[in-house]
Amino acid sequence: MNHDTSAVDPRRSPLVATLTLGCKLNQAETQQAARELQRHGCITIDRPTQADAYLINTCTITHIADRKARRLIRLANRLSPDAPVIVTGCYAERDGARLAQLPQVRIVGNQSKQQAATALLSAIENSASSTESRIASSSRTRSFIKIQEGCDDVCAFCIVPYVRGRERAIPIDEIVELARERVAEGVQEIVLTGTQPGAYGRDLADGTSAAKLIEALLARTDAPRIRYSSIQPQDITPQLLACWDDARMCRHFHLALQSGSDNVLARMRRRYTSSEFCDAVQRIRVAVPGASITTDIIAGFPGERDADHDQTLRLMEALRFSDVHVFPYSVRPNTSASLLEDDIAAEIKRTRAAELRELGAAHRREALKSRVGAIESVLFESAHSGLTDTYLPVQVARGVDLTNQIRSVRIDSVAESILVGELLG
Ligand code: SF4
User: Which of 80, 122, 159, 368 can bridge 5 by disulfide, Cβ–Cβ 3.0-4.6 Å?
Assistant: First the structure.
């Protein structure tokens, strides 16, 4: 679609590309900004294309995330040289001055992120009053809802507390109201997200907790599915796990391990030991049969010996995650780990990361194969493909458009890391 972006034609709706890098919290915030823009008559699209303006929500978790953000800004410049580019998110918060040197860029930091849409609207001022607003993104099936922001844990490698601040929970009533709105719009799955979603309510000290939030959502909304994204082993309480007695809760837990060695976990300032992590996984698997557990692991943290790496491989063998995201350690400015000597050679980091990924991929294949013959509940995100509640991708034969439907599928085989099945009923 060729789009003349030189001057916004007032007779048509401005097209805004809302682009997200990083975590689900960023996705929730971009979706929120996109809705704000639609309410003001814009058309939003969640992929890089020619547009009247761009909103780029950045991440700074690694130097690779920084590089991706700069590349995306340059791509926006190439696609629509005159279009304003609002850059927000953690990289903008950490190093906005550098990004502001790029053409057309205006910086909106994390602390004032709610104003990103307003900043963008004023940048395309005088843009046309629209006849309709269209959502051109997958937020029709799944909606990310921000439940808290910030983190009081200061893991040695992590820059997030510096760019997201202290923990701040959003009140339960506000979250329930937003979820009801989204369900009324036809959204099938609510994804609860934040910087430290597991610690939800910890800052309120009035007994508010993640378990209480989920109990309220289950009792006061008709959300067909609720997904609770990343939590820490220390957040896994019996009251929380009891919420999964309700079949609407997605049986997927993302528990970031980072290392299987107690020596490295202590240096990372993580709040659990390897045996406490295993215990949490065990308690999940007992309370939620069939649960899928995914994780993050850092390869080559300062001081990581061969023996530490072997312990991580052994723990992976014991726990058999459904998926593993591996990150070679990269120094982040201002973190306490940046004061440690980055003594693991890049080559060793690469080798260890490759070993971890290879083992993780083998366990993923196993997890997928184990679903052959099973009946899965699938939320179709497009006409013929979707996700199980355990976060596994499924494809069925072409036929009627199943987008935004939750249907039962009998899994017949695995093809290229996707479950292939037959629609039932
Ligand atoms: S828990 Fe640790 S890794 Fe996670 S956001 Fe907080 S400081 Fe970062």
Answer: 80
